[in-house]
Specification:
Length: 362
């Protein structure tokens, strides 16, 4: 298994596009490899309906950040050998009085977003930020993926490279769509809290309200295209020491061809955008300092003949032009606090900092 993972170091050196991914709690890894000409660019989500491949959908679809469809020439699956993985790492809980340097850009954005929320026009807006950090000269992609896989087996973990967008890697907790033909699943995931040790979590009203807004939006959107919608009770979902509130949905499409229409209406959900959806999306486009690129977009395999899976691109990093960019965001409500929201983004970025050896291991 380790030898198979290490192939990506060679592919990267040769500038050959690849994707290596592991679905949550799966017993296998999948490695895709191809050439530059195996990557198609799309300008609209509707175009993907007739295509199959590994998708990269950005938060904002532009000429610089188009939808990419990677149809690999080689696809190999191999068994996950858990005993070969290194020990994972625990995200240490932050003290509420921890001194943090909040960036001027985040303070400015937070003020603008809060002002909009205070006007009662929006119920929720997600504010994202980026942190550009130094790239280690001896960075080995295979070692990063092994550590990520060991630390977050319940997440959707992937690492990918194309010449256009560079290296992207992530450990996403949020399923966007999983299924085939008429039968599909999705999740509502919102609210964030650090959980140390075992036991139940006491969720704040702010977290509960935030997750409820996302759940209501998904339910109403599914009703336009689906029947036999089943909604589970909300529950805590934990990946390492970061927990979220989660609601699982299963449903049947009325028409299998409507999948691209559903994706177009569902994406981006309030979990990464806001409510009302279209107005929040445009407000973020015009006012957020962070260039989201493929952060909070979608990644995953989309195949008309097999089971497809798409995940929201969270807890992710981009390595390009000798720059390493970490991304994180959080949902703001009218009562949100500047320091608490900034600390939440730090916690989320630390998920990947530990994988990248940016934080001293305990």
């Amino acid at each position: 298994m380790i030898d198979c993972i290490r192939k990506i170091d060679f592919y990267y050196k040769e500038e050959a596009p690849f994707v290596l991914y592991h679905s949550p709690n799966s017993e296998e890894l999948v490695l895709l490899k191809g050439k530059k000409e195996d990557i198609l660019e799309c300008k609209e989500i509707g175009e993907i309906n007739k295509k199959s491949g590994f998708l990269f959908i950005p938060f904002f679809i532009t000429d610089e950040n188009p939808i990419l469809v990677f149809s690999p020439r080689e696809e190999n699956s191999f068994s996950l050998q858990k005993e070969s993985l290194k020990d994972g790492f625990t995200i240490q809980e932050y003290e509420s009085n921890k001194n943090v340097q909040i960036s001027e850009a985040y303070i400015r954005d937070f003020s603008l977003f809060k002002e909009k929320l205070s006007s009662k026009n929006f119920k929720k807006i997600v504010l994202a930020r980026e942190s550009i950090e130094e790239v280690k000269q001896d960075l080995k992609l295979s070692e990063i993926f092994i550590k990520m896989l060991a630390s977050y087996p319940s997440a959707y973990t992937y690492i990918a490279y194309t010449p256009k967008i560079g290296v992207w890697l992530g450990a996403s907790p949020e399923l966007f769509l999983l299924g085939k033909d008429l039968n599909w699943e999705t999740t509502s995931l919102a609210g964030t809290q650090v959980q140390e040790g075992e036991g139940s979590i006491k969720w704040s009203q702010k977290n509960k309200e935030e997750q409820s807004l996302v759940t209501d939006f998904i339910r109403k959107t599914l009703e336009k295209y689906s029947t036999n919608i089943k909604e589970e009770n909300v529950h805590s979902f934990r990946i390492n020491s970061i927990a979220h509130l989660k609601t699982n949905f299963s449903f049947q499409l009325k028409n299998a061809k409507d999948i691209s229409l559903l994706i177009k209406d569902l994406f981006p959900t309030p979990a990464v955008c806001g409510l009302p959806q279209k107005e929040s999306y445009e407000f973020i486009r015009k006012n957020e300092t962070c260039s989201r690129n493929y952060y909070s977009g979608l990644v995953g395999n989309f195949n008309k003949e097999e089971i497809s899976h798409l995940y929201v691109n969270l807890r992710c990093v981009n390595i390009k032009n000798k720059k390493l960019t970490l991304y994180a965001g959080g949902g703001l409500l009218e009562e949100s606090d500047l320091k608490e929201e900034f600390l939440e983004t730090e916690r989320k970025m630390d998920v990947m900092r530990r994988v990248l050896n940016k934080i001293e291991e305990k």
